[in-house]
Predict the 3D structure of the following.
Amino acid sequence: MLAAMVLMGTASVSTVAVAMEWPDEKACGEAVKSGDKIIKGWCTAISRRAGNCLGCHQAMVSPWPEKLAPGGNIGPPLVAMKARFPNREDLRAQIWDPTVRNPNTSMPPFGKHGLLTEEQIDSIVDWLMTI
Ligand code: HEC
């Protein structure tokens, strides 16, 4: 019974998420006030003053709705992140300093060079783990 209630609760949360419009950079200012950590990560990733990840990557917006946000083709599309990085720390390390994996990469070392704060990197990883 309790399990059924928990499941119903989960279902209603994702119903809300299905109806939700994912914010573009302009809408992010308002959207981050919701306090939703996944939206915060997404907004940090797409902001041109923060991650600017779409400058080089197309990216799956979220599981709901399944939509690929337009972006550059310099890096691979950010999709199936959880499957490609089963270990969260490996994914975080790729953003903190991609030159460890590939010294010649064009991806900036966001953590090592202080382009993003540790907290911003964590929130981007929170979002990436949902796509
Ligand atoms: C200047 C271009 C550029 C920017 C900006 C950039 N990346 Fe990348 N990224 C790359 C390239 C190129 C690769 C391919 C791997 C390599 O070069 O070693 C890559 C690889 C990755 C990978 C590994 C993908 C895989 O399947 O192996 C992840 C995850 C990633 N980037 C996330 C991000 C995130 C998150 C941001 C924003 C905070 C970002 N990138 C910003 C160029 C960029």
Summary: The chain has one domain: 24-128.
